[in-house]
Each structure stands twice: as structure tokens, then as C-alpha cells.
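User: Sequence in, structure out. Go.
Assistant: Echoing your sequence, followed by the C-alpha cells.
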Amino acid sequence: STECSSVATPVKAKDLKHASSFRHGGTLPTAVCLSKAALGAGVLSVAAHCAEVGIIYQTVGLVLGGLLALISIRMIAKASVSTGCWSYEDICDDLFHPAMSIFTGFMNVCNCIGSGAGYLIVCGQVFQVITGANESSRRLFVALVGIFICGPLALARSVSFMRHLAAGSVAALMLLVVSVVWYLGENGVDETVSPQTMMFGAGGATVFTYMNSINNIVFAYNNQFNVPQLTGELTPAPSTKRMVRVSLLSTGICFVLYVVVSVFGVLAFGVGENQGDSLVVDLLPVRKEWHVLLSLVAVMFSVLTCFQFHVYPIRQFAAYAVRKARGRGADDEKTDVTYGGRSLTRWWDIASALASVAVIIFIAVVITS
């Protein structure tokens, strides 16, 4: 399709000769961004789910989920490269019908708004654990974080703009692993853990318990909503082969982290009533230890970074809807009218980004309260 083909501007290989390996559009930073889109609040609860169903079921589920993630990322990247379109809305418009674009975009928006609200809620909960703040202070903190941190970061034009924050965020999650391992070393293996409970869970699990575990695994690899745009940002040119390598790296990072947290989380905090709903709850008794405190702050940083990746699909849907309403194409920004040195297209993009953050803050602060 010629309508979308120039969204990603190819870069000559000679221009990248001396470029950093962590440059915009590089394989490694793209993989880090894609893994960060998946590594959100779910990593905090994988140990709790593992305690319910056992490490065998959890690991098999993570392996199958990872394989399906690899297949889906390849399919999406192939569709993006083949059509030259870098959003689900434009891909569906090119291959199917605008109605499919609206439906797909709406589903992405619902998913991303819900996830974004969840990240702000987790951020507020961690703040409450660290400071002992009351409910009104928690809501105020969430609102301030959303306005002064999430709002400005949501305005970035490209996903890979977040690559350094994403790398720092993934590294920050390692502090959580360190704290769990430290707790295990200090207190030993929990008394409720035996070879039987480690392998198969505490017992008494129902079909809904296993379904809930599968649901957690599905969301553990939920980063596909950023794949079209990240594919378009690859340099020197987008390619399916490059995105396959990206998917292997990103899925591998997620898989290793989930398995490590599952194993050490169960060993440290046990099964049944001993295991809290999340690692934040599990670490509550030792929150005054400096490294535990640091790991909790790292969790806040991690979920706030993940928040940003969920804003991009909302902006893409809004951009598509505005373009259609104005009768313009995906590549028409250069010919658009300008106000204050920015195109009207960009102003609409800024407005949609800020509006999406405002809606998410409202859900996290008002509706969930």
C-alpha cells in the first residue's frame, strides 16, 4: 500500500556505521521496548499463581504462551511490512475494511486504558506500602504522578524514544528478584513448601484457579499492541526477519524473569495462606530494609514506564479516527496546516495523548475508589 509506506523512513546503512548499538530502531533497544510493554504489574503476581497451580503447570503455560507470542509477533510484523502500515488501524483498513479498523482500535483502547489504570493503582499501592499513607494521600499521589510524569512522557512521537527508560525499568525489576532471593536466604525455604506443593501447588485448586493462571500468562506476554509501530521504527528499514529476532529476545527476557520470580517467590513465601496476592504484599514485613525499599521504588518506576507503552495504541486509534474525519491520509502531516510551529495533526496527537492519560487517571483515582 502506498498510503502508509512512508511512515517509517528508511535510513542508509552508512549513516548507522558508527551508531550506537542502542540507537533508535536498533534490534536490542526494540526488543527491550517490546519486553517492557509486557513486563508490567503481572510480574508481581506470578509467584502467587505458581503457588496455586505448581511450577510444572506454570512453566508449561509460560512456554506455550511464549511460543504463541513469537508466532503472533511474526504475523503482525509480516502484515506491517507487507502493507507498509505501522498501526493496526491502517493495516485493517488496507487489508479489510474501515469498520474492522474501528473495531480493532476500540478493542486496543479498552485493553490499554484498563492496563494503564492498573499500573497507576499498583503505583499507588506501592506508595502506600512504603509510606503508610492513608487512602486520600494515595489518590493524590496517583493523580500527581499521572499528571506530572505520565502526561509529559505520553507526548513522545516514537515508541523507541522510551528505550533507555525501558532498559532501566527492566534492570529495576532485577532489584525485585534480588530482594526475593535475599528474603529466601535470610529466612530459608518456607515451611509450606515441599516437593509435592512445589511441583503441583497447594492442592484444592479448581478449574477457575487454572483458568486464572492462564489469564495471568496471557497478559504476561501482552505486548502485541506495540508491534506495528516498533516494526516501522526499525532502522535502516523495517523487516520481518529483524522483528523475529526482536521477538526472540523480548520473549526470552520475559520468560526467564517470570520463571525465576515464580520459583524463588514460592520458595521464599510458600503456598496457601503464606503466599500473598503479590510480591509487594509479601515484602511488606521487611519493607524497611534499604534494598527492599529500593526494589519497591523500582517497581513503581517499572509500572510507570510500562504505562507509557499502553498510551501509544490509544493515540494511534485517535489519529486514525481524526484522519478519517478530516479526509486525510496517513502521510499527509507534512502538508497539514500549522499552528505554533506544529501541524494540526500533531496537535490532535498531543490532545489525544493528554486526554487518554486524563481518562486513565480518572479511572484509577475516582472510579476504583
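User: And one key feature?
Assistant: The domain at 21-367 is CATH 1.10.4160.10 (Hydantoin permease).
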